TrEMBL record:
Molecular function, one GO term: oxidoreductase activity
Organism: Decorospora gaudefroyi
InterPro entries in the record: NAD(P)-bd_dom, NAD(P)-bd_dom_sf, NmrA/Isoflavone_reductase-like
Stated name of the protein: NAD(P)-binding protein
Transmembrane segments annotated in the record for this chain: none
Keyword Ribosomal protein: no
């Protein structure tokens, strides 16, 4: 479009205090190239102080207020919690289109789409992409990042199979199936790097496509070895059990059908370890190089996961 700016300068962000949203905000502010408007339903002390950040309290039920708040921005980033109202994402996209925002990063953070999709998911999050694709005058750039590494390792057995506090793990199959994963830091720096590129080399290049980023290509066995290095343990100090991922997928779906939330997590992650597309780094390739993203330290990320597991997340007892 002829009026398209050469660079993305004004960014609107929904969910700037959440897990991934806070890391995106941190890295965007770190570039000093953007003015960010963080839309929030209520004031929060979690927002950093920066001359490049405007925190705007707004009710998401007021479509006119949303449109007015979004006017003049070049890009909208949406990060919503799983508890967000099911129609909210679509209304945010509609408001962005009406406000004249040409690009949206939808609330999609996971594995690939189309031919690169996980084939037997318990939930299909691609409707977030559809919300943008079916809205005139706005395009999406989707972030494919795989599972969030620290979160998935720390949350408990239904996720990556680990109970770090208890020193126990369920390995899927032999535990050596490798999958692509990303840290929250990688997600944040990936989005910031994308928006620092000239539009023609960045968002226009990935217009209505997925940009693939990854921190590590790892197996559960790799995760366990990293935990050993961080904790100073050996296999002998862990309780190690085994389960076939296809059986785990079936059992998780059955649990979830009975209304058990943990069955959802179990099936969601089992599907990842069943499907070959979870290794998108090998099968498709990643865009780390095009975004100027360097390597990360697996043990440093594992150390963060341990801190999470030994904190409030571990208190949940999953």
């Amino acid at each position: 479009m002829s009026s398209e700016p050469k660079y993305i300068r004004k960014v609107a962000l929904i969910g700037g205090t959440g897990h991934v949203g806070s890391h995106i905000l941190k890295h965007l502010l770190g570039t000093s190239q953007h003015t960010i408007t963080a839309l929030t339903r209520q004031p929060s002390s979690k927002f950093p102080t920066s001359p490049n950040l405007n925190v705007l309290s707004i009710t998401y039920d007021d479509q006119t207020a949303l449109i007015n708040a979004l006017r003049g921005h070049d890009f909208l980033i949406i990060t919503l919690s799983a508890r967000a109202p099911p129609t909210l994402h679509r209304r945010l996209v509609s408001a962005a289109a009406t406000a004249g925002i040409p690009y949206v990063l939808p609330n999609y953070y996971g594995y690939g789409l189309g031919a690169h999709a996980i084939r037997d998911p318990i939930a299909d999050f691609s409707h977030y992409i559809t919300d943008v694709a079916q809205t005139p005058d706005v395009s999406y750039v989707a972030l494919v990042c795989g599972s969030w590494y620290e979160f998935s390792l720390a949350m408990g057995e239904p996720w990556f199979g680990f109970r770090i506090r208890d020193r126990s793990v369920t390995l899927y199959g032999d535990g050596r199936k490798k999958v692509s994963v990303s840290t929250w830091e990688r997600c944040g720096e990936g989005v910031a790097s994308l928006l620092c590129l000239p539009v023609g080399e960045g968002v226009a290049r990935w217009k209505d496509k997925e940009v693939y980023v990854s921190s590590f290509l790892v197996s559960q066995r790799d995760m366990l070895e990293s935990l050993h290095r961080v904790l100073g343990t050996t296999d002998a100090e862990w309780t190690i059990s085994y389960e076939e991922p296809a059986e785990r997928l079936r059992a998780g779906k059955e649990q979830f059908a009975k209304g058990e939330f943990l069955g959802f997590a179990k099936a969601l992650y089992a599907a990842v370890f069943v499907d070959e597309n979870a290794d998108f780094e090998t099968r498709r390739g990643v865009d780390n190089g095009a975004l100027g993203l360097g390597s990360e330290d697996l043990d440093a990320a594992t150390r963060r996961a341990v801190a999470m597991a030994e904190g409030e997340i571990g208190d949940l007892g999953y």
